[in-house]
Input
Amino acid sequence: MAPRVDSVASGDALPERADVVIVGGGIIGASAALFLAQKGVSVALCEKGHIAGEQSSRNWGWCRKMVRDPRELPLIIESLRLWERMNETVEAETGFRTCGIMYLADSAADLAQLETWLDHAREYQLDTHAIGAAEVAERLPGLTKKWAGALYTPSDGKGEPELAAPAIAAAAQRAGAALVQHCAVRGIETAAGRVAGVVTEKGRIPCDAVVLAGGSWSRLFCGNLGVELPQLKVLGSVMRTERLDGGPEVSASGGRFGYRKRMDGGYTISTLGVRTIDIVPDSFRLAPEYLPAVRIHWRKLRFRFGAKFAEEWRMKRRWSLDEPTPFEAVRTLDPEPDPVILDRARDSIAESFPIFRNARIAETWGGMMDVMPDAIPVISAVDALPGFFIATGFSGHGFGIGPGAGRLVADMVAGGPTIVDPTPFRLSRFTDGSNPRPHPMAS
Ligand SMILES: Cc1cc2nc3c(=O)[nH]c(=O)nc-3n(C[C@H](O)[C@H](O)[C@H](O)COP(=O)(O)OP(=O)(O)OC[C@H]3O[C@@H](n4cnc5c(N)ncnc54)[C@H](O)[C@@H]3O)c2cc1C
Output
């Protein structure tokens, strides 16, 4: 099953040319299109399926600064500023609300561990702070399990994934961006060593720059261009309840659950950080790069070996631009959720909040996240191909940072000052000897 995403009307015809073509209509591509169009740049956004069909409509909707990798903090702070006025900017409902987010701690030792992140909060004057058991109970009505305390950020928020990227894409269209759905981009054409256009399944668009915002498809797209992007996929599994009155407003995670109250009065529920990993050929190709991340997170990873290996083994990795590509073969990646994860999340949330015991589950779904070895994105020009930019690898937390990332890549493409320093997100960190590692606490 897949969440019901707001649809965005778009034409079938390709523009005759564009300054910039964006590949992928998730929250990143839609935001980049909006900010480029607002700068007066002519932009075309091509999406192989429909806007927000993949991760951008399937996520929990958390927009959080708390327990982020410090390298992402300047960008998420800017992103939350953009979210706060997003409904006004796009003249539509994105569901963004400041609601507060809480990370519950089981024991004093857990709380002490969470508190180590407060050094970063202080550096950026964030309102993240530790609270005790009594305040946790007061802020989370219906909670019966006793927690030792929590890390709490009142200014963190939430958006509605089914509404947000479509609303941003529609605003980009009104600002002048050309939007073409059901239009896979097969690759990039070059002239004199730089980007000269894209070839799509519907024809060619001459352009000066390309932004790849292809989510979990980005590695495949780059591979055909001879650009190495060390990206892997991991499965997240989610469910939503029917309307449930009397539950908590603040989003929280603890034990094996995490939730957000939705605008429809139900809850989106899952398990923070627990992910299913299908072993595929890329798992072996990229094993050395991912070893540090696996060492940190192995307790939360569920490895599976099955049909996915053969499926990806058979998938075409190289093609010429006049033949159909894997992008056309899978309009919308709609993976089955992992029932083991969902059962754990359901039992765990019911143990803490009895109100969830009889909650009716309206829907379950899976979403394929795109991750990087150091769990922060690539937002970068590609030195080997002038005019080619990548904004991908958001590692399971790209919804909240999405508007900021879209703005950053738009600034980079347009030239001039950027909203934050993009250096931590450069692609070359994987080859320049920096040996980038994930932050041990960040999620
Ligand atoms: C279960 C789950 C829970 C999550 N929870 C959160 C959360 O609470 N908070 C948070 O901040 N983040 C969360 N995330 C992560 C967040 O959803 C992603 O980081 C973010 O949506 C990534 O956006 P994107 O635009 O890069 O990718 P996507 O939304 O995946 O969009 C990429 C698009 O590119 C298109 N595409 C790919 N290749 C081509 C091509 N060649 N031609 C044309 N189109 C192409 C695809 O069809 C797709 O629509 C979660 C993710 C999942 C799966």
Residues 161-174 form the longest helix (14 residues). The first strand starts at residue 18 and ends at 23. The chain has a mean pLDDT of 96.
